[in-house]
Amino acid sequence: MPETIYLNGRLVSPEEALIPINDRGFLFGDAVYEVIRSYDGRLWALERHLQRLAQSLGAVDMGYVDTDEIAAALRETYAASAIPDAVVYLHISRGVAPRSHAYSRDLEPTVLITVRDMSARFAAMDPAGVAAITAPDLRWRRCDIKSTNLLPNVLAKTRAREAGVYEAILVHPDGYVTEGTSTSVFWVRGGRVCTLSLGGEVLPGITRGIVLEIARDEGLPMVEERISLDEFRKADEIFLVGTTVEVYPIISLDGEPVGSGQAGPVALQLLEAFGARVQAGDDAPR
Ligand code: PDD
């Protein structure tokens, strides 16, 4: 199925979908984005994504962007795609102006939405879990903003793929685990479901929030904590969570087995409960 594309107010063909060379998103990475998944013809967790988008826009001094208009454009573009299980990419750059670091607030933002059929990629995921490597976290101190400045992420993800593994798990210069290049990271130790607390070091993942709600509903003890890489290696379970991976067990880290070396029971329990919430359409912000 072809990609459906929305650019600056209208649906366009791939040939028409052109961005001026002076777009600040292109020149400076001066842009924010969201990645939203649909299940069976319904955009999953749309309200939560819009809330995070508003936070990102506010944090980069673009709070004037009307998120109701963006929501309408997302719905229109998704409806036009007729793709039941899609990944919707939303990208809002500050706009077009001759290259100069300082921006003005009167630029017209560039709004791009694409909808792609990702069902083959989802079908290729391995329910038995996947391997990961660790990599230094070279990013800035505002990783809570979903900005398109993803160079450290793309470099680390590519090192992971070249190593034949799924994800690179990033390690802060102070020695603790932050997140994956495009996923949140959870671990289980002492029977508790753990992840790093929110702050400038990690994205406030939509799936992270939903998985923490599920853990609470399931009566699983939880803790938000920092974990050193040494302790992380000894975790009973490690799993990724995110829009594109749901809950994905990591069974090997830097070539060593994680826990039993198989997908762990807590990850599998959370994955099943996540699937039930998707089925029920239970995604409203709490
Ligand atoms: N990435 N951490 C980072 C650095 C991410 O880029 C993402 C999402 C996540 C998971 O967040 P969520 O649950 O909201 O998807 C965590 C998207 C999918 C991407 O960049 O393609």
Provide structural commentary:
29% of the residues lie in helices and 28% in strands. It has 286 residues and is α+β, with helices and mostly antiparallel strands. It has 2 domains: 4-118, Aminotransferase class 4, branched-chain amino acid transferase, N-terminal domain (D-amino Acid Aminotransferase, Chain A, domain 1, 2-Layer Sandwich), CATH 3.30.470.10; 130-280, D-amino Acid Aminotransferase, Chain A, domain 2 (Alpha-Beta Barrel). The model has no long low-confidence stretch (mean pLDDT 97). Bound molecules: N-(5'-phosphopyridoxyl)-D-alanine (PDD). N-(5'-phosphopyridoxyl)-D-alanine binds next to helix 6.
